[in-house]
Amino acid sequence: MGLIKNASEVAAIREACRIAGKVLDEMGAAVLPGVTTLELDQYAAERIRAAGARSAFLGYRNFPRHTCISVNDEVVHGIAGTRRLMFGDIVSLDVGVVHRGFVGDTAATFAVGGIDPSVQRLLEVTQRALEAGIAQARNGLHVEDISRAVQSLVEGEGFSVVREFVGHGVGRSVHEEPQVPNFVERAGKSPKLRSGMTIAIEPMVNAGRREVRVLNDGWTVVTSDGKLSAHFEHTVLITDGMPEILTCRGKTP
Ligand code: MG
Protein backbone atom coordinates (compact mmCIF):
# COMPACT_ATOMS: atom_id res chain seq x y z
CA MET A 1 0.00 0.00 0.00
CA GLY A 2 0.99 3.64 -0.30
CA LEU A 3 3.58 5.20 1.97
CA ILE A 4 1.11 7.82 3.22
CA LYS A 5 -1.83 6.38 5.16
CA ASN A 6 -5.23 8.09 5.28
CA ALA A 7 -7.10 8.70 8.53
CA SER A 8 -9.05 5.44 8.51
CA GLU A 9 -5.94 3.42 7.67
CA VAL A 10 -4.06 5.15 10.49
CA ALA A 11 -6.90 4.36 12.91
CA ALA A 12 -6.76 0.68 11.93
CA ILE A 13 -2.97 0.53 12.23
CA ARG A 14 -3.20 2.30 15.62
CA GLU A 15 -5.53 -0.42 16.90
CA ALA A 16 -3.29 -3.25 15.59
CA CYS A 17 -0.30 -1.55 17.22
CA ARG A 18 -2.13 -1.14 20.53
CA ILE A 19 -2.77 -4.89 20.53
CA ALA A 20 0.87 -5.66 19.67
CA GLY A 21 2.07 -3.45 22.54
CA LYS A 22 -0.34 -5.07 24.98
CA VAL A 23 0.72 -8.58 23.98
CA LEU A 24 4.38 -7.64 24.32
CA ASP A 25 3.67 -6.36 27.84
CA GLU A 26 1.89 -9.59 28.71
CA MET A 27 4.67 -11.73 27.27
CA GLY A 28 7.31 -9.68 29.02
CA ALA A 29 5.57 -10.23 32.35
CA ALA A 30 5.79 -13.97 31.71
CA VAL A 31 9.58 -13.90 31.25
CA LEU A 32 10.94 -15.83 34.22
CA PRO A 33 13.78 -18.29 34.84
CA GLY A 34 12.62 -21.81 33.93
CA VAL A 35 10.00 -20.89 31.35
CA THR A 36 10.55 -22.33 27.87
CA THR A 37 10.49 -20.15 24.80
CA LEU A 38 7.71 -22.33 23.37
CA GLU A 39 5.59 -21.66 26.47
CA LEU A 40 6.11 -17.93 25.91
CA ASP A 41 5.13 -18.25 22.26
CA GLN A 42 2.00 -20.24 23.11
CA TYR A 43 1.03 -17.68 25.73
CA ALA A 44 1.47 -14.92 23.13
CA ALA A 45 -0.66 -16.88 20.64
CA GLU A 46 -3.43 -17.08 23.24
CA ARG A 47 -3.22 -13.36 24.06
CA ILE A 48 -3.18 -12.37 20.36
CA ARG A 49 -6.28 -14.52 19.77
CA ALA A 50 -8.01 -13.07 22.83
CA ALA A 51 -7.47 -9.59 21.36
CA GLY A 52 -9.22 -10.64 18.14
CA ALA A 53 -6.02 -10.53 16.08
CA ARG A 54 -3.67 -13.03 14.46
CA SER A 55 0.10 -13.31 14.31
CA ALA A 56 1.74 -11.43 11.44
CA PHE A 57 4.75 -13.76 11.62
CA LEU A 58 3.18 -17.25 11.69
CA GLY A 59 3.47 -18.56 8.13
CA TYR A 60 5.34 -15.49 6.89
CA ARG A 61 7.76 -17.13 4.44
CA ASN A 62 6.87 -20.29 6.40
CA PHE A 63 8.01 -18.94 9.77
CA PRO A 64 6.75 -21.60 12.23
CA ARG A 65 5.92 -19.60 15.38
CA HIS A 66 3.60 -16.78 16.46
CA THR A 67 6.39 -14.51 17.73
CA CYS A 68 10.16 -14.26 17.37
CA ILE A 69 12.04 -15.11 20.56
CA SER A 70 15.79 -14.55 20.52
CA VAL A 71 17.99 -15.40 23.52
CA ASN A 72 21.41 -13.90 24.37
CA ASP A 73 23.59 -13.99 21.22
CA GLU A 74 20.49 -14.48 19.06
CA VAL A 75 19.78 -11.16 17.36
CA VAL A 76 16.33 -11.60 15.78
CA HIS A 77 14.03 -14.24 14.27
CA GLY A 78 14.66 -16.87 16.96
CA ILE A 79 12.30 -19.86 16.78
CA ALA A 80 10.66 -20.80 20.08
CA GLY A 81 11.36 -24.32 21.30
CA THR A 82 12.30 -26.37 24.35
CA ARG A 83 15.00 -23.99 25.55
CA ARG A 84 14.46 -22.87 29.14
CA LEU A 85 15.31 -19.30 30.03
CA MET A 86 17.93 -19.09 32.74
CA PHE A 87 18.58 -16.47 35.40
CA GLY A 88 20.90 -13.88 33.83
CA ASP A 89 19.81 -14.47 30.22
CA ILE A 90 18.38 -11.73 28.05
CA VAL A 91 15.50 -12.46 25.70
CA SER A 92 14.26 -10.38 22.78
CA LEU A 93 10.54 -10.72 22.09
CA ASP A 94 9.20 -9.51 18.74
CA VAL A 95 5.41 -9.31 18.36
CA GLY A 96 3.69 -8.65 15.03
CA VAL A 97 -0.08 -8.85 14.79
CA VAL A 98 -2.69 -8.40 12.09
CA HIS A 99 -6.02 -6.91 13.14
CA ARG A 100 -8.73 -6.23 10.54
CA GLY A 101 -6.11 -6.43 7.81
CA PHE A 102 -3.59 -4.04 9.37
CA VAL A 103 -0.29 -4.71 11.09
CA GLY A 104 1.34 -3.63 14.35
CA ASP A 105 4.99 -4.53 15.04
CA THR A 106 6.97 -4.08 18.26
CA ALA A 107 9.85 -5.68 20.14
CA ALA A 108 11.82 -5.37 23.35
CA THR A 109 14.61 -7.18 25.14
CA PHE A 110 13.94 -8.39 28.68
CA ALA A 111 16.22 -9.49 31.49
CA VAL A 112 15.58 -12.97 32.87
CA GLY A 113 15.87 -12.47 36.62
CA GLY A 114 18.93 -10.36 37.37
CA ILE A 115 21.53 -9.36 34.81
CA ASP A 116 25.04 -7.99 34.94
CA PRO A 117 25.36 -4.15 34.88
CA SER A 118 27.26 -4.37 31.58
CA VAL A 119 24.36 -6.29 30.06
CA GLN A 120 21.89 -3.82 31.51
CA ARG A 121 23.85 -1.09 29.75
CA LEU A 122 23.42 -2.89 26.39
CA LEU A 123 19.64 -2.91 26.92
CA GLU A 124 19.56 0.74 27.98
CA VAL A 125 21.69 1.89 25.04
CA THR A 126 19.48 0.00 22.57
CA GLN A 127 16.37 1.51 24.13
CA ARG A 128 17.90 5.00 24.01
CA ALA A 129 18.90 4.41 20.38
CA LEU A 130 15.27 3.64 19.58
CA GLU A 131 14.19 6.84 21.34
CA ALA A 132 16.84 8.85 19.46
CA GLY A 133 15.59 7.38 16.17
CA ILE A 134 11.97 8.14 17.01
CA ALA A 135 12.89 11.76 17.82
CA GLN A 136 13.98 12.14 14.16
CA ALA A 137 10.78 10.63 12.74
CA ARG A 138 9.36 13.97 11.68
CA ASN A 139 7.68 15.36 8.60
CA GLY A 140 10.27 16.85 6.22
CA LEU A 141 13.30 15.00 7.60
CA HIS A 142 14.69 11.92 5.85
CA VAL A 143 14.96 8.25 6.76
CA GLU A 144 18.71 8.71 7.11
CA ASP A 145 18.15 11.19 9.96
CA ILE A 146 16.67 8.31 11.92
CA SER A 147 19.47 5.99 10.81
CA ARG A 148 22.18 8.46 11.79
CA ALA A 149 20.69 9.15 15.21
CA VAL A 150 20.56 5.43 16.01
CA GLN A 151 24.01 4.64 14.66
CA SER A 152 25.82 7.55 16.31
CA LEU A 153 24.28 6.87 19.70
CA VAL A 154 25.11 3.16 19.58
CA GLU A 155 28.64 3.53 18.23
CA GLY A 156 29.31 6.39 20.65
CA GLU A 157 28.67 3.88 23.45
CA GLY A 158 31.10 1.37 21.95
CA PHE A 159 28.49 -1.07 20.63
CA SER A 160 27.65 -1.90 17.01
CA VAL A 161 24.51 -1.89 14.86
CA VAL A 162 23.42 -4.81 12.72
CA ARG A 163 23.24 -3.95 9.02
CA GLU A 164 21.64 -7.01 7.45
CA PHE A 165 18.21 -6.34 8.98
CA VAL A 166 16.42 -3.00 9.04
CA GLY A 167 13.23 -1.24 10.07
CA HIS A 168 10.41 -0.83 7.58
CA GLY A 169 7.09 0.71 6.65
CA VAL A 170 4.03 -0.90 8.26
CA GLY A 171 0.53 -1.13 6.80
CA ARG A 172 -1.37 -4.04 5.36
CA SER A 173 1.92 -5.94 5.14
CA VAL A 174 4.50 -6.39 7.83
CA HIS A 175 7.35 -5.16 5.63
CA GLU A 176 6.54 -2.19 3.40
CA GLU A 177 8.59 0.61 1.96
CA PRO A 178 10.57 2.50 3.05
CA GLN A 179 13.39 0.50 4.58
CA VAL A 180 14.65 2.13 7.79
CA PRO A 181 18.29 1.12 8.33
CA ASN A 182 20.08 1.63 11.64
CA PHE A 183 23.14 2.98 9.83
CA VAL A 184 23.93 5.47 7.07
CA GLU A 185 25.61 4.00 4.03
CA ARG A 186 25.46 6.86 1.54
CA ALA A 187 24.17 10.19 2.79
CA GLY A 188 21.57 12.05 0.74
CA LYS A 189 19.88 9.01 -0.80
CA SER A 190 17.08 8.13 1.60
CA PRO A 191 13.35 8.88 1.24
CA LYS A 192 11.76 11.94 2.78
CA LEU A 193 9.55 11.39 5.82
CA ARG A 194 5.98 12.65 5.40
CA SER A 195 3.01 13.00 7.71
CA GLY A 196 0.86 9.89 7.51
CA MET A 197 3.75 7.43 7.11
CA THR A 198 3.77 4.54 9.59
CA ILE A 199 7.19 3.02 10.12
CA ALA A 200 8.79 0.47 12.42
CA ILE A 201 12.09 1.68 13.87
CA GLU A 202 14.06 -1.21 15.32
CA PRO A 203 17.70 -0.96 16.36
CA MET A 204 19.45 -4.32 16.71
CA VAL A 205 22.54 -3.67 18.78
CA ASN A 206 25.47 -6.02 19.31
CA ALA A 207 27.73 -5.84 22.35
CA GLY A 208 30.67 -6.89 20.19
CA ARG A 209 31.19 -6.82 16.43
CA ARG A 210 28.34 -6.03 14.05
CA GLU A 211 28.62 -9.20 11.93
CA VAL A 212 25.84 -11.77 12.13
CA ARG A 213 25.06 -15.14 10.60
CA VAL A 214 21.92 -17.24 10.14
CA LEU A 215 21.70 -20.68 11.78
CA ASN A 216 20.85 -23.85 9.85
CA ASP A 217 17.17 -23.50 10.81
CA GLY A 218 17.11 -20.79 8.13
CA TRP A 219 15.81 -18.14 10.54
CA THR A 220 17.72 -17.58 13.76
CA VAL A 221 20.19 -14.71 13.36
CA VAL A 222 23.13 -14.83 15.79
CA THR A 223 26.15 -12.64 16.38
CA SER A 224 29.23 -14.02 14.63
CA ASP A 225 31.37 -13.43 17.73
CA GLY A 226 28.87 -15.06 20.12
CA LYS A 227 28.43 -11.87 22.14
CA LEU A 228 25.04 -10.56 23.28
CA SER A 229 22.56 -8.62 21.16
CA ALA A 230 19.50 -6.51 22.05
CA HIS A 231 16.49 -5.35 20.01
CA PHE A 232 13.87 -2.69 20.67
CA GLU A 233 11.17 -1.73 18.18
CA HIS A 234 8.21 0.61 17.95
CA THR A 235 5.82 1.33 15.11
CA VAL A 236 5.40 5.11 14.90
CA LEU A 237 3.21 7.54 12.96
CA ILE A 238 4.83 10.59 11.37
CA THR A 239 2.67 13.64 12.07
CA ASP A 240 2.94 17.38 11.51
CA GLY A 241 4.38 17.61 15.02
CA MET A 242 6.03 15.02 17.21
CA PRO A 243 5.84 11.37 16.13
CA GLU A 244 3.16 9.24 17.73
CA ILE A 245 4.36 5.94 19.18
CA LEU A 246 1.59 3.57 18.10
CA THR A 247 2.86 0.47 19.90
CA CYS A 248 2.83 2.12 23.29
CA ARG A 249 2.99 -0.10 26.30
CA GLY A 250 2.03 0.05 29.94
CA LYS A 251 5.65 0.27 30.94
CA THR A 252 8.31 2.23 29.06
CA PRO A 253 9.02 1.98 26.28
MG1 MG B 1 9.85 -5.07 12.45
Brief summary of the model shown:
The chain is of the alpha+beta class.
Would you write up a description of this structure?
The chain is an alpha+beta fold. The chain has a single domain (7-245), classed as Creatinase/methionine aminopeptidase superfamily (Creatine Amidinohydrolase, Alpha-Beta Complex), CATH 3.90.230. The protein is 28% helix and 24% strand. It has 4 helices and 15 strands. The chain has helices spanning 7-29, 37-50, 117-135, 143-156; strands at residues 54-55, 68-71, 74-76, 90-99, 102-111, 160-161, 167-169, 176-180, 198-201, 204-206, 212-214, 221-223, 229-231, 234-237, 244-245. The strands form 4 sheets. A 5-stranded antiparallel β-sheet has the order 8-7-9-14-15. Strands 1, 2, 4 and 5 form a 4-stranded antiparallel β-sheet that branches. It has a 3-stranded antiparallel β-sheet with strand order 3-12-11, with no helix packed on it. α3 packs antiparallel against α4. The protein is globular, with a radius of gyration of 17 Å. The two termini are 28 Å apart. The site of magnesium ion has 5 residues, from loops.
N- to C-terminal distance: 28 Å
Number of strands: 15
Regions with little confidence, pLDDT below 50 for 5+ residues? none
Strand order of the largest sheet: 8-7-9-14-15
CATH superfamily: Creatinase/methionine aminopeptidase superfamily
SSE order, as H and E? HHEEEEEHHEEEEEEEEEE
> What's the CATH class label?
Alpha Beta
Structural class: alpha+beta
Q: What small-molecule ligands were found?
A: magnesium ion
Number of domains: 1
Helix content: 25-40%
The main sheet comes to: 5 strands, antiparallel
User: Any idea what the shape is?
Assistant: globular
- What Rg is obtained from the alpha carbons, in whole angstroms? 17 Å
| CATH fold-type name | Creatine Amidinohydrolase
Using the 3D structure, state the CATH architecture.
Alpha-Beta Complex
Overall mean pLDDT stands at: 96
